[in-house]
Amino acid sequence: MKKLISIIVLVLLLSTSVIAKTKSIGNGLSINVPNKYKYFELTFGQLVSRFPEIAADRQLLESFGVGMGAKLIVIANNQKTIKFFDDATSVTGLEKILRNHLQPIGEKIVDSKLLESVMKDIQNLAPSRDFENISEEEKMNLMAEFAQSPKIIKKYERIFKPYIEKFNREYNFDKFTVLLVGDKKAEFLNEIKNKNIDELLQIVRDEVIKIFEETKNPALKHWQFEIEKNHLGNLYLYSNDSFQSPYVTSKFYQELFLTSYKDQILLALSICVEKCNSSTDLLNIIKPSNLYVDSNSSIEVTDSSNLNEKIAKKYSLKDERPLALSWDGYSDLIAGKVKFNEADSKGTVNFVLPNNDGTCEGSYNLQQQGKGTWQISCTNNMGAAGTMNWVKNGSVTGTGRDYKDKKVKFTISQ
After folding, report:
1. In angstroms, rounded to a whole number, what is the distance separating the alpha carbons of residues 212 and 307?
2. In a domain, 49, yes or no
3. For position 390, what pLDDT does the model report?
4. pLDDT, tens digit (0-9, with 9 covering 90-100), for 207-227
5. Has residue 146 got a pLDDT over 60?
6. Within this chain, do residues 252 and 387 fall inside the same structural domain, yes or no?
């Protein structure tokens, strides 16, 4: 019996070591490296020796506690991703990336036929606009419209798809986490240590809104994040909301984590492209550090008119409700059920199309004041995106356009 118990214990220990191995990263911190994942590490001193111009703004770097001993760490599920970071941090490798990938994309961007096509698409968005006498603000607003048109996004994704596929064949970005581990006291911590969490939430939100208003990047408009203190009393910022546009068809998951330990920063960014199960490897990788604890306070960036909204509380909700959808191209109203899984004002949906046309799945973001955005992708190579209005009793109405610029309208009943 004792022998059997010993064998069982040994198997359990071996199984644990196969799932992940723990690795020290300095400053008394450790992380998990999942089984079969690849590891890359480079000190800031090594990086500066290759690219001396990086150290030009040393004052800024030192304010974040980034000295010559600071570490850049990459953990990835394949060697090709590691190869990218190895190339990107060497002079000859960076030249190869520029020559083989960025330069061809740059040449395509300035191609006269592409520029003519872009100009035509912009003019179609505002046919009565005088483009010879347009203000800078009007230009930015037009670019925002351009970046939020599902039809236009689909068109240019198709144009640049060969370049992306070529890049992925060489580097294959799938699941990876990038960590920056500081080696000096981060001076900026002194500036924020006496501020309460509400003040810090407001500061970050103001900065993100400022960037959004300058760039009109739709990915920033509704970016959600939380700021809390962990069990050590250290502040952290966490977000599982990606910086990608809600209108692109190729989706990825992203998690961001920033905190400090012994007055030195730890920054982690994790990305997952395929087989993600709605998350990345981040929390598993940083688990041994014990620096992240779940919290209840979260906040959503909306726009400059929404600066005084209260902090939203976390929640989760699963349900199935009646759906009525009209989609140009279908003669009949599409009626059925929509299943959704919602947490913290973000959710996923799926439903079946008529005529055996397949299924659709997608996601949505609920915003303040009963507004929101949505997007769906279907197995028949169709998809759509748009805006929605919701009320707390569960009723939802939405409008948008598909990849061929056809109108889509829907109602979800309580």
Report:
1. 14
2. yes
3. 77
4. 888 887 777 777 777 788 888
5. yes
6. no
Contact in structure between 187 and 213 (CB atoms under 8 Å): no
CB 40 within 8 A of CB 6: no
Higher pLDDT pick, 7 / 190: 190
User: What are the angstrom distances between the C-alpha of 58 and each of 50, 53, 166, 188?
Assistant: 16, 10, 36, 14
Last residue of a domain, one of 251, 285, 312: 312
Domain residues for the domain of 356 are: 315-412
| CATH assignment of the domain containing 322 | 2.40.128.120
Query: pLDDT-derived band of residue 272, with 50, 70 and 90 as boundaries?
Result: very high
List, for residues 26-72, the tens digit of each pLDDT value. Answer: 999 999 999 999 999 999 999 999 999 887 777 778 889 999 999 99
pLDDT for the residue numbered 318: 66
Pick the closest to residue 363 from 242, 239, 208, 280 (CA basis): 242
59 by DSSP, 3-state: which? helix
User: Counting Cβ atoms within 10 Å, is residue 170 exposed (0-12), middle (13-18) or buried (19+)?
Assistant: middle
Region at 106 (left for phi over 0; alpha for psi -120 to 50; beta for the rest): alpha
Give the integer Cα–Cα distance in Å for 14 and 34. Answer: 14
Closest CA to 250 of 403, 82, 59, 400: 403
Give the domain-ending residue among 254, 287, 312.
Answer: 312
- Residues 70 and 160 reside in one and the same domain: no
The structure tokens listed for 194 are 């006496």
Please count the structural domains in the chain. Answer: 3
Residue for token pair 């990876």: 176
Per-residue tokens: 232: 């050590």
Helix (H) or strand (E) holding 145: helix 136-147
